Amino acid sequence: MILLRAGLRNLVRHPWQAVLTVLGVALGVAVVTAVDLANQTAQRAFKIAAETVAGRATHHIVGGPTGLPEELYRTIRVGRHFRNCAPVVSADVRVAGRSGTTLQLVGLDPFAEPPLRSFSSRFANGDVLATLMTRPESVLLAAGTARQLGLRVGDRFRIELAGKSPEVLLAGLLEAPDQVTRLGLESLMVTDIASAQELTGRLGRLSRIDLVLPEGDAGSRILAELRPLLPPEATLLPAGARAGSLEQMTRAFRLNLTALSLLALVVGMFLIYNTMVFSVIRRRRLIGLLRAVGVTRREVLWQLLSEALVVGLAGTLAGLALGSLMGQELTRLVTRTINDLYFVVEVRSVPLMPQTLVKGGLLGVLATLAAALPPALEATGAPPRAVLGRSFLEARSRRLMPYAVVTAGVVLLAGFLVLRVEAWGIAGSFAGLFALIVGYALLVPAGVVLLARALRPVLGGLFGTIGRMAARGVLISLSRTGVAAAALVVAVSATIGVGIMVGSFRLTVTSWLESWLRADLYLTSAVEADARRRPPLPPALVERLSRLPGALTSVTRRVTLPTAAGPVEVFAAQVPESTFLSYRFKEGSPREAWESFSRGDALLVSEPYSYRHKLHRGGRVTLPTRLGPRSFPVAGVFYDYGSDQGIVMMSRAGYLRFWEDPGVDGMGFYAGPGVTRDRLAQEIRARVGNERVRLVSNAELRQNTVAIFDRTFAITGVLRILTMIVAFVGILSALMAMQVERARELAVLRALGLTPGQVWGVVTGETLLIGLAAGLLSLPLGVLQALVLIFVVNLRSFGWTMEPYLDPKLLIQAVLLSLAAAFLAGIYPSLKIARLSPALALKEEE
Amino acid sequence: MRRLMTILLVAALAAGALWTLGRRREPAVEPGGMSVSQALGGVPQTGFARAVAPRAFRFPADHGPHPEYKTEWWYFTGNLADSAGRRFGYQLTFFRMALAPGEPPRSSRWATNQAYMAHFALTDVNGRRFSSAERFSRAALGLAGAGGVPLEVFLEDWSARETKGAPWSVRLRAAQGSGALDLELVSAQPVVLNGERGLSRKGPEPGNASYYYSIPRLATRGTLSVGGERFQVTGTSWLDREWSTSALSGDQAGWDWFALQLKDGRDLMYYQLRKKDGSADPFSAGTLVAADGSAKPLTRDQVRLVPTGWWKSPHDGARYPAGWRLSVPGEGIALEVVPRLSDQELLTSFRYWEGAVAVKGEGGAELGSGYLEMTGYQPGGAGVGR
Q: Which structural domain, as residue segments, surrounds residue A429?
């Protein structure tokens, strides 16, 4: 009981410290919770949408780039009497004027739906079905979506798809039979299949045919019967395969975010550890006395741990609340990145997910207890007399230092070894990374000693006795400064590591774009969409423009082919030889590859594709073509940073031969000799006429691409800043606690005649020294982390190699960050000391 | 006769498609969610042709569809037996319904203003089995549709196709589960125009009428499959054809329709429209066809109709008459209409009873066969469609 009161008293007397500690825990938990929430929300939204659309389908028949012929549906349904099937025409649409709102247009035949999907408006009035079928371009939205868009039934609004911007009519609302379906419906725009074909311009084609097959032999028999009916480019996929492979796509991305969020928690743990160390040290006398009068070790230990638990709980609760708030914003960032990089997913609400809260809560409390355990054990483990003496602690931490260095060596080595095991994948790479961080952190106290010793003469020279006192102070209170510095190093190095990685990546992408984008002007459809969802250009326009005098042209088409192993993105291009020769190859060379590539006999795979499929030059890729599955030799592996799933590149000649899809979604124009870019642009515009297209210069396109890159890394940047804030709070609280704890010592100094200014000098000097030491020590760890992120984590997550690039600004920033935190940390204790009369201060403590 | 069929059709089309859409967790269309008046809006849509005056029927063209009218049906029913005397009944019905007037040009082949519904039922009298099925489809892409000369009406693989112009013959094919039929029907009689030269008035307002003709006897021969067993069968079928753009007066509860082929060569069609208060609507009417093919219209006053008992459906608790006493005193007709199987209730989105019946005389002697349709007996009162 007395212990409990002592603990409470301790909190009350140092409210700032309590607040900072709770804040530290809270921030750590908040970051983890927010990231988890964002990940889960995005994933869940996607999954539910996919399941809602798939309904009870057990299989899908999917087509090539142009879909399936619609007659196939009739053949299956009427010709083969298989009636548990439904046609679907789907496309991504944007709601005009709302750049953020992308919906999935799903065109259905309501009469074929019964065995398939459970959603539908149950049409409170029977007219909706008639309206949907007989009024072209009438659509249905979920009530929530309509509300969000400010639409009422009967309203007309514009959407963007297939290079057009048609007006559609909100004919009714989709009413979900349950909450889960309601969530799924929120990203859909349902329409009649005829309207869907007309809106997308895909007349005569279906996106897919959904099937409900019975289980077991009966199902297999039907499958065997249906297979021969399929056109060669069609693929029969089990339901869920598509959703599963899309989910798989974002796994690496989500894992990376989680790892980064855990980094914030690790920093938070250091902070808790540090706080607990202080709270134990501060009461060492009390603990010693209690132990001397017969309180057992166990009682003391429980007391200390329950104190930690209180802090942990308070911090965790605050963290969960904060995390839920931050989660909203992070979800936006995460879904935007997923939309940019992977697929359309629309999240309208971020529900509080119990498992996320439980996870965050457990993590916060356990981390607090884990961090509090070592100091608590230390305080209770020592004999009562020893605990009473402070010098004992200092002596011991100095004595332990060699052991710490040895342990650090072992942990570092283990980290390096773990990183070398490629089979352990992304998780292994993060485990290795964390081992390196912990190992390095163990080295920090020794590093501080070395630095403080080295700097003592310098400080002495600069500031005289005060400077020397500051340096000495760091050394003699190593038990505390060491931990504070270690926390600081971990936090700051994380920001350096992530910063360098993103910077290197950006630079690599920029220089890759230079080799990849060679044309002077690029033409695409005007619809706001990324490369993967670009609608084809009007064929007549392509025809007009490909015969432009005085210019070379390139035409490209990007399509996604469904395969049993997941979707494969194919980039079909007809580019001038000179452009092709400038491509950067990882394996093979453009010169050797050109001939077979341009004939369409061989193809190229991008680096991530090669990494993911363990496919190298000389290997073969099998793709579903119009002529059936076809195996192509790989003539080379090229660098590409456009897709982390990897792409397959083939010449247009080959694409036309095997897919008979004349669609073109991008054109490039190379100004001939004596033709200026402006002249060329004029010529093109003159031929474009009224078509809605976008003509951009090489520089603009590069800029746009880099802008998208920056956007996708916005989430990383946010996490980096959050970690920085946690670090800052940690440093502030650690150093402040250290100085507050020294109040009596400082009062002695005052009593000895030091002016408040001089005491401030000692305090600030000391904290700045720690800040400087930590800042400097964080640099090697930061660089190390960057290297691991670049060469191990990124490679294993995304299959990209990048050139490491060290921006000195990042290093300077890091040192300044720690100095600023250290400086701020010195202010409060100095002011307090200055205000107190030395006599009072001397009496007050202990 | 089946003037409420219009409503039924709209309701069933919408209800059928949507009920099944929402079926996963919904037992059926929510009660009252699809009331008749809501479905039709009370007033017929403008833009459709209406049956106002008698028309000049032209055959075989009029066997084909009349898309300018809102609803239309081809109603085949028949009593069949195999060489061993095993009795069967069948019903194959195609309903056409225009969702909106006109057919504006659209570029998708899926686009259409016409939708089809079809019902297929088989009665195995000796095996005491009855099965029913329904289908819906848009009239597009060859999934469903109708053509005029020669007649072709189909919904997926259920079809009625003209095989010969004179005597007018038609082949019916349908299959669902273990039930199937493939029948050749040859008309044994000319077309009979019901009502006023084919104009069947449904109410006092002009235009509240349909065009309605029947072929009461078609010699039928072919195969039936019931429960996986195949039977060579022969017998007599009845074709009812009707098209209209009728409005709803709102006080009908349902109807009872009789199509009876008597052994003496006469055929009797009569429909009784029941009001919500249980009384027969004055517009109830029928046709008596003599053995020589001459037809005579019947009015409500000429016909007496009384249920002889009640049958409670084990499927939904609906109470249907278990038989009827039908007499036309002026014509010397006094009959008992007895279902060949009590449970011939169609478990379709819109539920009703339709099945093979025996026609008996006072002493119990069998005088003929026929088909009986009874609607509006569902629990929950007067509503025809739920």
A: 389-517+698-846
The span from the CA of B193 to the CA of B240, in Å, is: 10
The rounded distance, in Å, linking the Cα atoms of A183 and A139 is: 18
Give the residue from B192, B268, B269, B272 showing the smallest Cα distance to B3. Answer: B272
Q: Residue B230 — φ and ψ, nearest 5°? A: -105, 140
Does residue A250 lie in a domain region? Answer: no
Please give the DSSP secondary-structure letter assigned to residue A790. Answer: I
The separation between CA B300 and the C-alpha centre of its own chain, rounded to angstroms, equals 20
- Angle between helix axes A714-741 and A808-835 (nearest 10 degrees) is 30
- Region A12-32: mean pLDDT is 77
CB A47 within 8 A of CB A77: no
The whole-number average pLDDT for the span A124-136 is 75
Whole-Å CA distances, A705 to A531, A533, A534, A794: 10, 15, 15, 20
- Which run of H or E residues covers position A68? strand A68-69
Specify the DSSP class assigned to residue A67.
B
> What is the tens place of the pLDDT at every residue in A218-272?
888 988 889 888 888 788 888 776 666 666 667 777 777 777 777 777 776 766 6
Chain B contact residues (CB < 8 Å to A)? 10-11, 13-15, 17-18, 20-26, 29-30, 33-34, 38-41, 99-100, 106-113, 115, 136-138, 140-143, 156-157, 175
Measure the CA–CA gap between B250 and B254, rounded to whole angstroms.
11
The answer to whether A695 and A666 are in contact (CB under 8 A) is: no
Query: Per the domain annotation, does A243 fall within a domain?
Result: no
Closest chain B residue to A129, measured at CA: B14
Q: Please check whether residue A131 lies inside any domain of the structure.
A: yes
How large is the angle between the packed helices A590-599 and A652-659, nearest 10 degrees? 30
- Within 8 A of A193 by CB-CB distance, chain B residues are 108, 110
A474 and A490, same domain (yes or no) = yes
* Pair type for strands A620-625 and A138-142: unpaired
Contact B351, B334 (CB under 8 A): no
| Stated pTM of the model | 0.71
pLDDT digits (tens, 9 = 90+) for A87-127: 999 888 888 877 667 788 999 988 887 766 655 434 444 57
Q: Does residue B379 form part of some domain? A: no
Provide the domain count of chain A: 4
Domain end, chosen from A357, A383, A409, is at A383
**Radius of gyration, alpha carbons of chain B:** 19
Contact A122 B108 (CB under 8 A): no
Q: In sequence order, which residues have a C-beta less than 8 Å from that of residue B273 and are 6 or more positions away?
A: B1, B3, B4, B252, B255, B280, B281, B283, B284
Instruction: Answer whether A203 sits within 8 Å of B21, measured CB to CB.
Output: no
Sign of the Cα pseudo-torsion (A460, A461, A465, A467, in order): negative
Looking at A342-424, list the stretches that DSSP marks H as alpha helix, in order from N- to C-terminal side: 354-381, 384-388, 390-420
Residues A606, A639: contact at Cβ < 8 Å?
A: yes
Q: How far is A347 from chain B (nearest CA, A)?
A: 24
Same-domain status, A46 and A68 = no
A-interface mutation test, from B10, B20, B21, most A Cβ less than 10 A away: B21
- The answer to whether residues A703 and A640 belong to one domain is no
Contacts of A73 in chain B (CB under 8 A): 141
Q: How far apart are CA A42 and CA B178, in angstroms?
A: 47
Predicted pLDDT at A11: 67
Q: What is the CATH number of the domain that holds B282?
A: 2.40.370.10
- Cβ contacts from A onto B, under 8 A: 118
| Of the candidates A682, A780, A793, A669, the residue with the CA atom closest to the CA atom of residue A262 | A793
Tell me the two tokens of residue A762: 């000692």
Domain boundary among A629, A659, A691: A691
